[in-house]
User: Fold this.
Amino acid sequence: MLKLIEKDDADELFALVDRNRTYLREWLPWLDMTNEVKDVEVFIERSLKQHEEGVGQAHLIIEGNEIRGVCGFNKIDKTNRSAFIGYWLSADAQGRGLMTKACRELERIAFEELDMNKVEIHAAEGNKPSRAVAERLGYQETGRSLDAEWLYDHFVSFVLYCKRQSDWRTL
Ligand SMILES: CC(C)(COP(=O)(O)OP(=O)(O)OC[C@H]1O[C@@H](n2cnc3c(N)ncnc32)[C@H](O)[C@@H]1OP(=O)(O)O)[C@@H](O)C(=O)NCCC(=O)NCCS
Assistant:
C-alpha cells in the first residue's frame, strides 16, 4: 500500500533509515545528511511543499502497519509532462516484488491522475536491483548520463529508463 508521507511519519521513518544506513549508503547520496529525526522532518516538509505545488510527491510503502520504504516522484516537470521516479526499500523488504508493485501504482498516478506523458527512472549503472525494477516493468533504456551523481567519494553514471503514456496504455 502506498500512503502519502505526513509529518507524523518522521520518527518511524528515521528509525528505518538509521537501521539501513550502511546498505542504503551504497547507492543513495543523502545518508550522511540524515543524522537525526529533524533531518527527516525537513525532508517531509519539503516533500509536502513539492506536492502542494505539483512538482513532486513522496509516498511511504506500508506493509501491515510498518513502513518498508519510500517511493515517489523526485521531480514533476509540468511543462513537459514528465515525472521522475525515485525509490528505496529496507534491506529486509527486498526480493518480494514490493517495489515493482509500488512503481505500477506510481505509473497509474502519473498517467491517470496527473496526465503525464512520460515517466523516467534513473538508476546507477552498477545498481542491478534498481535497473531490474525498470526492466521488469518494461521501461525502454534511452541512454546514459555520465558522472550524473556524486556519491560521497566518487561519481556514478546513470542509465536512463523511460515509459511513455502510450506505451503504458498498450502494456
Ligand atoms: C532498488 C530496490 C528498491 C530493489 O528492490 P527489489 O526488492 O529488488 O525490487 P522489487 O521489490 O521489485 O522485488 C524484485 C525481486 O523480488 C522478486 N519477486 C518476487 N515476487 C515478485 C513479484 N510478484 N513481482 C516482481 N518481483 C518479484 C524478483 O524476482 C526480484 O528478486 P531477484 O532480484 O532475486 O530476482 C532495492 O534494492 C533498494 O532499495 N536498494 C537501495 C536503494 C536504491 O538503490 N534505490 C534506487 C536508487 S536509483
Remarks:
- Helices lie at 10-19, 21-25, 37-53, 98-113, 128-136, 165-170.
- The chain has a mean pLDDT of 97.
- Residues 24, 27-28, 87-89, 94-100, 123, 127, 129-130, 132-133 surround coenzyme A (CB under 6 Å).
- The beta strands are 2-4, 57-63, 66-77, 82-89, 118-124, 140-151, 154-164.
